[in-house]
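ok so for the tutorial part 2 we go from a plain amino acid sequence to predicted structure tokens. step 1 is just haveing the sequence, like this:
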Amino acid sequence: MEINENLVPETGAENVDATTTEEIVEQVTEPAAIYTEEQFHEKVNEAAGKRAARKEAKLRKKYDEEYGGLVDVLKKGTGLNTVGEITSALKEFYEGKGVEFSPKPEFSERDTEILARAEADEIIGEGFDEVIEEAERLKAKGAQNMTPREKALFVKLAEHINKIETSRELDKIGVPKDVYESDDFKTFKSKFEGSRTPITEIYDIYTKTQPKKEIKPMGSIKSTAIEGGVKDYYTPDEISRMSEEDLANPEVWKAVRRSMTSK
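step 2 — the prediction. this is what the tokens look like for a chain of 263 residues:
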């Protein structure tokens, strides 16, 4: 078997010399692009969109290869346009011939909730992009066309998306995680469900409803030494914390002078 020599790239010394060491270093050390936070998120969303498009194209290709020919035959044979219409028509036809089909399994509301939660956890485990993609798919399908399980799944995914976006916004303004994940804040936030109030505004309102912490000023001699009686000796730190009212007390003033001159 002969190998076409024209397909083999030349690696002679002349090609090495064509690119100088300085040019190679310049290419390698070229500074990477620096993005703003907004540009970074745009890049991430763009990449996620491309990844979703590739995934959809791959699934569509596989579907067309396996079922495309069959669907075309059934469309022409039945005169119907969608897979749903064809399925209903064929089922009705064969039921007329005495064929019995097993009914779809019916789940209780509790079972549906458990299955939806398990599926949501699996999608969440695959990453936030997967959560967004599946939520958008269900949204495009429409609530009227969703099964009970899909509706429950959509609610779970929407709750997760809201939680992530809420934490991101509050992190930006420096709100501690233990605060915005506290039961107290969650209860307060629930009062705004259905409104378009930004989460940062909700937090601002929340802080204004919280009782102000009592800040006690550094203790003065009035609240310590004077109320308990004038001391014979005061340390420099105690003297520095005395108020004018403290020093106006003659007995305190004498004790301060005595403390300042004593060794």
